[in-house]
Fold this sequence. Notes:
With about 425 residues, the protein is α+β, with helices and mostly antiparallel strands. The chain has 3 domains: about 1-75 and about 385-420, no CATH class; about 75-155 and about 305-380, no CATH class; about 160-300, Tick-borne Encephalitis virus Glycoprotein, domain 1 (Sandwich), CATH 2.60.98. It is built from 2 helices and 32 strands. The chain has helices at about 1-30, 385-420, and strands spanning about 40-45, 50, 60, 65-70, 75-80, 85-90, 95, 105-110, 115, 120, 130-135, 145, 150-155, 160-170, 195-200, 205-215, 220-230, 240-250, 255, 260-265, 275-280, 285-290, 295-300, 305-310, 315-320, 325-335, 335, 345-350, 350-355, 360-365, 375, 380. Strands 7, 8, 11, 12, 13, 24, 25, 26, 27, 28, 29 and 30 form a 12-stranded antiparallel beta sheet that branches. Strands 14, 20, 21, 22 and 23 form a 5-stranded mixed beta sheet that branches. Strands 15-16-17-18-19 form a 5-stranded antiparallel beta sheet, with no helix packed on it. Strand 7 and strand 8 (about 105-110) form a beta hairpin.
Amino acid sequence: xxxxxxxxxxxxGLGANGTALSVIGxxxxxxxxxxxxxxxxxxxxxxSASLGGSSALQVGRGSNITSVQKLFGQGTLETTxxxxxxxxxxxxxxxxxxxxxxxxxxxxxxxQFVINKDGYxxxxxxxxxxxxxxxxxxxxxxxxxxxxxxxxxNPLPTSTATMQVSLDGRxxxxxxAWVPPVAALPASNTYNYSSAITVYDSQGNxxxxxxxxxxxxxxxxxxxxxxxxxTDPALPPAYSSQTVGMTFDTAGALLTPAAPxxxxxxxxxxxxxxxxxxxxxxxxxxQFGSPNATIFQTQxxxxxxxxxxxxxxxxxxxxxxxxxxxxxxxxxxxxxxxxAPAELVKVGKGLFAxxxxxxxxxxxxxxxxxxxxxxATSLEAGNVDLAEEFVRLIAAQRGFQANTKVITTxxxxxxxxxxxxx
Length: 422
């Protein structure tokens, strides 16, 4: 009877080692799968039988696989250069949903993402990456699918302008009198020097503002700020102006204005905010015995912009770079963390699902509570160690071969027993 039992014992060994070979084969097959997490077959012995009631006479009944353990060790991070690729350096998981506004949630370490036809950030398989939208004021919304195409950079009307000039103190007062322009820009014999700056109204339309500098006396100048009040380029110009007096000391340093001067830019038609107050700052302007020149000028407004490119920070913040040169945060990727990640259920395509053993997903931003940071333009490689897998493969192969030897040996012994009758 014991001899027959050895056949079943060896068969259990064949089954256990065969399962181990399958696990090892799966690991090796996925050696190049992004963010693949390898598994390990855990062996255990089968409950022994006791002969004669003594623990000293217990005989084993073979082996089996008690579990196939998922190994969530960190894979190496490989740079791809793709701005939408992300890798997690830590214990978190990306959250992906079946639908843009709902559906089943899955979890993955594979950070290969694309923008679909509707502007959502998705996996190559069409699952929607979850995160929190960020509005233009920096406020975060509720967890949901990350939508990129609706991100815009709203225009900012100009409210400050800096005009730093160096005026030529050797020049005299122009012969012709200054006449505030209405239908045409002033004649060149009414001013000494001019510069221009582009400003933006409340709808992002750009307007050219000219500043004409006219010397009025020793160390004294007038800066005439001139602009076209018509916002429709098809209409003839209708200029308006405001004058700012400037004085310099004997060393050429600016005395007045000592602070920015508000110029109320008016726009006709009622389509945009009017008047538009703009603080013109002439600080650090000088008067020397050298040709007139504009040293520096800038203003703080800009037109509206559409999304041109993306960057992703290690905290998972997706920032948009817009066609108007502005950058702002659009969304924040969220990561899930589990109490027992090894108990997650594999569902294929690099996805995992919750189970009663894994616990519920605890969702928060990257770089919090061990979720890990985001490595942009990178992907996590699988954590399979080929050298280690080949060692396990040889061990499982030898184990399988040894158990087949037990079966053939037992068969020979049984044949010997049958031969006794003859």
